[in-house]
Write a structure and sequence with these properties.
Layout (H helix, E strand, L loop, with lengths): L2 H10 L17 H12 L3 H13 L10 H11 L4 H14 L28 H6 L2 H7 L6 H19 L12 H9 L6 H12 L8 H10 L8 H11 L7 H14 L18 H9 L1
Helix pairs in contact: 2-12, 3-13, 4-5, 4-10, 7-8, 9-10, 11-13
Length: about 290
């Protein structure tokens, strides 16, 4: 074969095409997977739970409780303490750092573990932020853990002011719920629960705060996997409520109130619980008693 023919032969021979790279499968969303599993094996569990609790405690209608900044600071004060103690700490903040603004009305309703705040103007948040930390510790001492909460409150207020130019959080109501939650959780010390409380109670955003009472009730009934970490539980509920996000408020307040009133940690009152037919844990408690 002449060199010319050899070259032509080489040109006519097609090069093998490279094998397409296998695309990695995206990891399944664990919350969506859980919601689908629940819908398949225990359909209507959430609806039946909410309907039973609504009959027991009455229908729950959302209404705004406080200014969002007040709601945030009050929620920080409730961390690892009784709501009634947090109320005392917040009232002390109002007295120590008066703002002279219009009075707020706190209508706690079902789910809140305290007496409700008396009417009063929100504190002067700039004065709270700039106060000597030891002074602020003394003011909020009734809420407990003041050595942790005072610096956290001041750091939170400072972060909001540096980001926004003031302490108002009203802008969060204009953001998509998850973006608003992400903005809040970017502040050190603010987790999904605290952020969700603010967005749910101030703006009726379809988010689901999961505290220890909600988590306990949900795991006993089977709404949450027994070993689901608390942080993931928030997103599990969002997936479960995807078809009825308007029920987020009643889901939170009914479950938290039921956890305080009947489905208590040490001695649940299973004999009077309307959820007993749906509750594997309660049925075990009854058999053991």
């Amino acid at each position: 074969m002449t060199p010319t023919r050899a070259l032509a032969s080489t040109r006519l021979t097609p090069k093998p095409k490279p094998k397409p790279k296998k695309r990695k499968r995206a990891k399944p969303n664990p919350s969506i997977a859980w919601a689908r599993r629940l819908a398949r094996y225990r359909p209507d569990l959430l609806d039946d739970t909410l309907n039973s609790l609504s009959e027991l405690y009455g229908p729950q209608v959302w209404q705004r409780r406080l200014d969002p900044t007040s709601e945030l600071i009050l929620t920080i004060l409730t961390q690892s303490t009784a709501d009634v103690n947090a109320e005392q700490g917040f009232v002390a903040l109002r007295a120590a750092y008066p703002s002279g603004k219009e009075s707020e009305h706190h209508e706690p309703g079902v789910g809140w573990g305290g007496d409700g705040l008396p009417d009063g103007a929100p504190p002067d948040w700039l004065a709270v932020e700039m106060a000597p930390t030891e002074e602020l510790m003394a003011v909020i001492k009734p809420a407990g853990l003041q050595t942790q909460k005072a610096p956290r409150i001041q750091a939170t207020l400072r972060k909001i002011r540096e980001e926004r130019g003031n302490h108002s959080l009203e802008f969060l109501g204009e953001m998509p719920p998850l973006e608003a939650r992400d903005w809040l959780t970017s502040i050190p010390g603010i987790g999904k629960k605290t952020a969700s409380v603010l967005l749910l109670f101030c703006f009726d955003q379809p988010l689901m705060p999961v505290d220890r009472h909600v988590e306990r009730v949900a795991k006993r009934i089977g709404l949450l996997p027994a070993k689901a970490p608390a942080d993931l539980a928030h997103d599990h509920f969002l997936a479960m409520l995807a078809s009825s996000p308007e029920r987020s408020y009643e889901t939170h307040v009914l479950l938290i109130h039921h956890g305080r009133a009947i489905c208590q940690a040490r001695k649940p009152k299973c004999e009077i619980c309307p959820l007993l037919p749906h509750c594997p844990a309660g049925q075990k408690f009854m058999k053991a008693s």
